Structure formats: structure tokens, C-alpha cells
Amino acid sequence: MQLTYLGHSAVSLELTQQQLLIAPFISANPATEANPDDFSPSHIIITHAHGDHYGDTESIATRCGATLISTFEIVNYAAKNGVNGHGMNIGGGFDFDFGRVTFTPAWHSSAFPDGTYGGMPMGVVIESGGKTLYHAGDTALFSDMKLIGSKWSIDVALLPIGDNFTMGPDDALAAVSLLKPKVVIPVHYNTFDLIAQDAQAFKANVEANTSASCVVLEPGQTHNL
Q: 0.90 exceeded by the pTM?
């Protein structure tokens, strides 16, 4: 599994024969030089309805026939605009042809820019090719992250560190201690001034205080699981 960071919380995953996109906020993302037309995923995974995660979902999905995996509410919303989807909810898992997807809790909010309710916000665990990835979505620190870390042996955890709307670096460091991933990659920071953070300082704290290594990726850079 090869992970490419696209800036903000957007991630591309290259699997053996398929490509997945998580939170494809691309065309309006000032932190990336990627173009939505660069991607032809088989599936798009969305953790909540905010525009900085839902992003280019509809244009990408309708162009290449990707299946949207998200909450029942988000999938129904997208279906009205011609997007095929598979609705799920917190605690539920499903075996797709590329691997297993399970949605976990997240403490945040979830509504589309037009105010439509998007269901509960979620994190997501993806198991594929013997590797396990956890994308926390947008969330506060919560103690049940320890349960997530106990249930799965997490190879890579993508955690927001931007503060203001999500965990900041200190709470994200505590999340690493609860989740116990092998590798942590910070996301949801430096896209806008309001969420500016020093990712290298976060890396130093993670590696000094936990058993995890921290990989800081610039938009467009990759990490192999």
C-alpha cells in the first residue's frame, strides 16, 4: 500500500490493483498542486460532510464511476447528484474487494455547506493487503481511542494536529499514546493560517515520548506501508 498525502486531510492510497481516495478536497485546497482529474479511484471514503473533506467527491465519482463509502446520510445526499455509494455507520464494517472498511467514532460535527445533516462524524480503519491504516477524520481527543488501538494493530495513523477545529499537537500526541500505531502522519494543518502548526516539533515530541515514528509529508509526497 502506497499512501500519497495531498494536503489538508486528503490522501490517495494505491493498492495492488485499485486506488482509493480519502477526503478528496483538491480543487479548492490551497495546500496542493494536484488536480481532481489526476485521480481515477475505484472508491472514495468520506468521514464527514464538511466541504474540506467532501471536496471534489461528486466530480471525481461521476467521471470515473467510483463508489462512495460513507455515512448513510452522505451517500443518500450524493446519490441525488448521480454518485453510486455504499452507506455505513459508526461501528459497522464491510468487506470490499480491496479489503475491509470499519468506521469508528469521532468527536466533531458534520453538515454540508448547504446545512444538510451528514450523519455522525467518523474515523475510518482500512485493512488491505495485510496492512492497517487509521484515518481519524476531524476529531477531538477521546479516551476510546485506546479501544481502537487495542482492537487493531495500526501500521499508520493519520491524525489532525491543526487545533481550533480538531485536536492540536498536544492532544494528538496523547492520541498516539492511546492508539499505539507504528507510524503517525500529521494531517489537517497549515492549510490556512488558523490551523498553522509546526509539524517537525510534533514529530520530535512523538518520537521522544512514544514508541511510534512520525513521518511528516509535504503535499505530493508518499509513504509506503
A: yes
CA angle 192, 6, 126 (to 5 degrees): 115
CATH architecture of 2-218: 4-Layer Sandwich (3.60)
Contacts for 18-22 with beta carbons within 8 Å, 24 or more apart? Answer: 18/42, 18/43, 18/97, 18/98, 20/44, 20/45, 20/98, 20/126, 21/45, 21/60, 21/66, 22/46, 22/47, 22/124, 22/135
Alpha-carbon gap, residue 21 to 1, rounded angstroms = 13
Percent helix, percent strand, percent coil in the chain, to nearest 5: 25, 30, 45
Domain ranges of the chain: 2-218
Q: What's the burial of 205, exposed, middle or buried (CB within 10 Å: 0-12/13-18/19+)?
A: middle
First to last CA, the chain: 5
**Angstrom distance (rounded) from CA 133 to CA 49:** 21
Dump pLDDT digits (tens) for 191-201: 999 999 999 99
CB 121 within 8 A of CB 48: yes
Residue 209: what are its φ and ψ, rounded to 5°?
-120, -5
Q: Find the angle CA(142)-CA(205)-CA(168) to the nearest 5 degrees.
A: 40
Spans in the chain with pLDDT lower than 50? none
Pairing relation of β-strands 11-14 and 2-5? antiparallel
Whole-angstrom distance, CA of residue 60 vs CA of residue 79: 14
